[in-house]
Amino acid sequence: MRKPGPSNLFFRYLYANKWLVAAICIVTVLRLSFVGAMGLMPQDAYYFFYGQHLALSYFDHPPAIAYTLRIFTDVLGRHAWAIKLADTLVTIGTLLAFYRLSTFFLSRHRAWNAVLLLYSTLMITLLSLVSTPDVPLMLWWSISLIGLYKAVFEGSRIAWVWTGIAMGLAFDSKYTGILLPAGAILFLLLSARYRHYLWSPWLLLAIAFFLLTISPVVIWNVDNQFASFRFQSSGRVGGMELHPLDFLGVIGHQAAVLIPVLLGALFYYLYKAFRRYQRSGWRMPAKQLFLFCFFLPSFLGFMVISPIYWVKLNWMMPAYITGIIWVSAWMGMKYIRWQWIVSMVVHLALAVEILFYPVPIHSDDTMIGWEGLGKAVREIRGQYPNDFIFSADDYKTSAMLNFYLPELVYSRNVIGEPALQFDYIGTDLRRLEGRNAIFINSLTDVDDDKDEQAFVKELHPWFSDVEPLPPIIVKLHGRVVRKFLVYRCFDYRPPQPAVE
User: Fold this and answer.
1) What is each CA distance from 434 to 409, 419, 455, 456, in whole angstroms?
2) Dihedral, 252, 258, 260, 263 alpha carbons, nearest 10
3) Which residues, in sequence order, are CB contacts of 25 under 8 Å at separation 6+?
């Protein structure tokens, strides 16, 4: 009997997995449509603001996301879709690098399954639609592991150079990148076969190129009294309190990020691996040890600290690069289909939320209403052309207005409070002395503006008088979805510089 050719096998595969194929097509179309349909998020605007003030590094994070957005918006223009497209293309690069990395550990069939698992996650949707330092981090994390694999397992000497550079670029994306050299050292310490690399000149060469690549971030910190390093280290530690139920919160949001089927599989196969290697004296193949060294420390470490420190949704993302490759060795097509069915349902629900906004988000972390705010503030600017504009939330309203307005919109440093990156763009507030200002206050709940109105008391020490203007109301499908309080402030008195 004649054997079916490759094309026939492909079509048989499609027919046998038609629900899977349908789910992949639906999620892909939705993601591409979100690039044009989804409005700007505050994070997009904030890192765009980074890019408009190019520097060696920044207060909150290293510079990779800033330069990425600057390149795309310089070429394509100052558009929300250009920012989303930047995130999408970088994330496609991550998927390609992930597939290449997977082929080192899995058969091509299993590597394809690993890509299907990663591609199904809400994590990929978030990375491709919301600008954060994790977008370039995930790309350089994957490339770093490709280089390290070639250096260690294939004996490529030049790969040590590229590994050092790629790990440096991961660090230049987000400080979490420091876990890459830490994971490499951990692997070499635990692997008897490859431990000799610890005292080889090639590891030292990789470290040298890593240090050279991260030098801009170090130089910025030295020039700014280590402000960013302190903010991301000692500044974080100060928030530790015991909240045992936060562990369940972390499980919940990681189930949303990964889709519950995949997260359940990770826990299940980790339990089986623990039992298996406990019986064998913790001896495991070198390649599996490699995957574990870049998965378990982050994954289990953040789980362990979650009862005393709130672990953010994106902190574990890099760990899933090798975690998904590892679990793909055992996870069968039956569970991959279920993963995709759940993913399709989640993405359809997300599409409904983006288009119709049935569930109000009581937070400034939303794409809803900001473009309407920008249009309204441009009209106010026409009435008061000599006033400067500022807001005083964390960064979100000011960053959004900086995107939508052709001028600098100030932040909470106007009233003497720390303002993140707004404190590091060389603004001289004394030049604003005596001027009037427009203050914009975003409401997280359109039906409750009592607390936000009370905040106006904070403005009085800095202005001779404050008077309310009509609020800005933004509607969607005839329904009020955002409300912004507006005040005109007179005769600004800037904070006095500290006496040294």
Assistant:
1) 17, 21, 22, 19
2) -90
3) none
159: which residues sit within 8 A by CB, 6+ positions away?
147, 148, 150, 151
Six token digits for residue 46: 């904030």
pLDDT tens profile 175-195 = 999 999 999 999 999 999 999
Exposed, middle or buried by CB within 10 Å (0-12, 13-18, 19+), for 470? exposed
pLDDT of residue 190: 95
pLDDT tens-digit series, residues 250-287: 999 999 999 999 999 999 999 999 888 887 767 889 99
Residue in this structure with the two tokens 């309203």, named with its chain if needed: 397
Asked whether the beta carbons of 491 and 463 are under 8 A apart, the reply is yes
Phi-psi region of 282 (alpha: psi -120 to 50; beta: other; left: phi over 0): left
Q: 136 and 90 in contact (C-beta within 8 Å)? A: yes
Residues written for the chain: 500
Distance CA 164, CA 172 (A): 12
> For the chain, which ranges sit under pLDDT 70?
1-16, 234-240, 281, 451, 497-500
pTM: 0.93
Rounded CA-CA distance 307/254 in Å is: 15
Q: Which class for 6: exposed (0-12), middle (13-18), buried (19 or more C-beta within 10 A)?
A: exposed
Query: Which of 188, 364, 210, 398 has its CA nearest to residue 293?
Result: 188
Distance CA 184, CA 398 (A): 40
Both tokens assigned to 61 = 């994070």
CA gap 197, 187 in Å, rounded: 10
Handedness of CA 254, 259, 262, 264 (dihedral sign): positive
Indicate the residue type of 148: L
pLDDT in the model for residue 499 = 41
Starting at the earlier edge strand, list the strands of the sheet with 465-476.
Answer: 388-391, 437-442, 479-490, 465-476
Q: What number of other Cβ atoms are within 10 A of residue 221's Cβ? A: 18
Residue written as tokens 């919301």? Answer: 130
3-state secondary structure string across 46-79: HHHHHHHCCCCCCCCCCCHHHHHHHHHHHHHCCC
